[in-house]
Design brief:
The complex is a heterodimer of chains A (about 290) and B (about 280). By secondary structure, chain A is mostly helical. Chain A is built from 15 helices and no strands. Chain A has 2 domains: about 15-55; about 55-285, MetI-like fold, CATH 1.10.3720.10. In chain A, helix 8 crosses helix 12 and helix 12 (about 210-225) packs antiparallel against helix 15 (about 255-285). The relative contact order of chain A is 0.13. With about 280 residues, chain B is mostly helical. Chain B contains 13 helices and no strands. Chain B has helices at about 15-40, 45-50, 55-85, 95-100, 100-105, 110-120, 125-130, 140-165, 170-175, 180-210, 215-220, 230-240, 240-279. Classes of the chains: A mainly alpha (about 290), B mainly alpha (about 280).
Chain lengths: ~290, ~280
């Protein structure tokens, strides 16, 4: 039933007979205008503001704001964090989805709920848990200090907090996809003598590639843009532990609006690029459940 | 292992299951346990003192009140936008459909400073609200605006697939038999999308309660007035009051679990209804 209803309602939008009464067109235009007004105030205006403010003093001021060494350091730190976190969470997502989708075992749905847990937790808590573990007054604070290892207010803390926040993104995309696609091809490959790794790389990976791309870009967008969790563990040391979102906060609070919105414009472009890739992936027929 | 797992010809269960549970424990579960332990190491008296302090109560009122209001706004506009996208054809529909996910992809710090600029007294929208006596930025209204933006994709994306499920032939049949549009809406459309509407509301609420980045720019961050609970946790951490922070974090964690449970129940309810409808 679902498939039929879906394709029918997509095809015949506004072409159904007997619907062109005055009342129905008033309703239609009310709905469309309400939607557009709401989105214009809440979404389009802020998006436009980012670029208007970034270019308020012209192109040269915009470009020059990236010459600031602290801004460059923030961009570098954000890239390093994403480069570490995204591959690790991708490997985790692949392992988790293989375990969850290929096998039946007790407690599976509970495990899937646990994997999704970071999505339900406030970003502030995601950062705080590491402060409680590794901060000066945390469980391992004294030991770490004695051994001269810094986790909090340093790169490891930023990476851990980002990893926590982006932990489920690849897994939650791949688990339902793999479950839906089934195991027939994999079982055939194994029965015919292919090894586990060959089966994974030659059969499974091509099957789920669009879901993987989808999960990875969402994971990356969140990793680069995370504010709350990273803010708690970073210590906000300019040029050292400031990621791009944290640097935006510092510049904004210093009333350096061109600088703040210039960095913000980069992150906005990243978000736009993420949505473009997402739309392209969906055009291949991959649909999120 | 063999006892709890059904046999399969596929290899790699030990490796992937082991890696998954190990990594899950190391990154998520043990750190969360550290928080619970930290809160549990307090005496009951201290815990109650922190959790029910006037400042904490003020922050709950704002966090939960504004989140509830924002989720309610999203319930209404999420339905209107989803309906518009599913039922009507107009120029730019596909673009707007894609842009609905923007608040999800946009870093919260960016939406925070951008919303504050738009709704400030001299901002694009703020300047028209100012003469009406409505102050948005640095008040609870600003907090609600930011939380509404954050929750919007959750509301729209929950309702959209449910609206596609509505059987158009049932609507046609009802109209042929003389039912008015409002009657059709109340008796056919609303029952089909109700679980999805409530799921969207709960998801938007859950996201809003924990939100930090976009709120702290537009809120005035005044204790008791415009201070959200996550901000109070950050302030406690900066004072090195780890136990106080953990206690507040524990309260939020418990509420997240309750909301998560509600979402699961709502989705199960929605699935049952769709299955029942197909029969």
């Amino acid at each position: 039933m679902a498939a039929g209803a879906q394709s029918a309602s997509l095809d015949d939008i506004s072409t159904r007979p007997g619907r062109d009464t005055i009342v129905s067109s008033i309703v239609r235009w009310t709905f469309i205008s309400l939607s557009l007004l709401f989105l214009a105030a809440l979404l389009f205006a802020p998006l436009a503001t980012v670029f208007v403010m970034a270019f308020e003093k012209g192109w040269r001021a915009y470009v020059q704001s990236f010459a600031d060494p602290d801004t460059a350091a923030a961009i570098r730190l954000t890239l390093i964090t994403a480069l570490v976190v995204v591959p690790i969470n991708t490997v985790f997502g692949l392992a988790a989805s293989w375990a969850m989708a290929k096998f039946e075992f007790r407690g599976k749905s509970f495990l899937i709920t646990l994997i999704d847990l970071p999505l339900a937790v406030s970003p502030v808590i995601s950062g705080m848990v590491y402060v409680l573990l590794f901060g000066l007054h945390g469980w391992f604070g004294v030991w770490l200090q004695e051994h001269d290892i810094s986790v909090i207010f340093a790169l490891p803390g930023i990476i851990l907090a980002t990893m926590f926040v982006t932990f489920p993104y690849v897994a939650r995309e791949l688990i339902p996809l793999m479950q839906q696609l089934g195991n027939d091809e994999e079982e055939a490959a194994i029965t015919l003598g292919a090894g586990g790794w060959i089966t994974f790389f030659r059969v499974t990976l091509p099957k789920v590639r669009w879901g993987l791309v989808y999960g990875v870009i969402l994971c990356n967008a969140r990793a680069m843009g995370e504010f709350g969790a990273v803010s708690v563990v970073s210590g906000h040391i300019r040029g050292l532990t400031n990621t791009m979102p944290l640097h935006i906060e510092i510049l904004y609070n210093e009333y350096n609006f061109v600088g703040a919105f210039a960095v913000a414009s980069l992150l906005t472009l990243l978000a736009v690029a993420t949505l473009v890739v997402k739309t392209l992936v969906e055009r291949t027929g991959y649909r999120r459940r | 292992m063999a006892a709890i797992r059904q046999p399969s010809v596929l290899p790699g269960f030990g490796l992937t299951f082991g890696f998954t549970t190990f990594f899950l424990s190391a990154v998520v579960l043990l750190p969360l346990a550290a928080l619970v332990l930290m809160a549990a190491s307090m005496t009951w008296h201290d815990f109650v003192h922190v959790v029910f302090s006037a400042r904490a109560m003020g922050s709950y009122r704002l966090s939960f009140g504004a989140s509830f209001l924002a989720a309610s706004i999203n319930l209404v506009f999420g339905f209107i936008i989803a309906w518009t996208l599913v039922r009507y054809e107009f120029p730019g529909r596909k673009l707007i459909d894609a842009l609905i996910d923007m608040p999800f992809a946009l870093p919260t710090a960016v939406s925070g400073i951008a919303l504050t600029t738009v709704f400030a007294e001299n901002g694009w929208i703020g300047q028209y609200l100012q003469p009406l006596g409505i102050k948005v930025a640095y008040t609870w209204i600003g907090v609600t605006v930011a939380l509404t933006l954050i929750g919007l994709p959750f509301a729209v994306r929950s309702v959209q697939p449910a609206l596609l499920e509505v059987q158009r032939d049932l609507e046609d049949a009802a109209e042929t038999l003389g039912a008015g549009r409002l009657y059709v809406f109340r008796r056919i459309i609303l029952p089909t999308v109700l679980p999805a509407l409530l799921t969207g509301f709960t998801l938007a609420f859950a996201r809003a309660v924990g939100e930090y980045g976009s709120v702290i720019f537009i809120a005035g961050n005044l204790p008791m007035k415009t201070e959200i609970t996550p901000l109070l946790i950050v302030i406690r951490l900066e004072e090195f009051d780890y136990k106080g922070a953990a206690a507040l974090g524990f309260v939020m964690l418990v509420i997240s679990f309750v909301v998560l449970l509600m979402i699961n129940l709502l989705q199960a309810w929605g699935r049952r209804r769709i299955v029942a409808g197909a029969r």
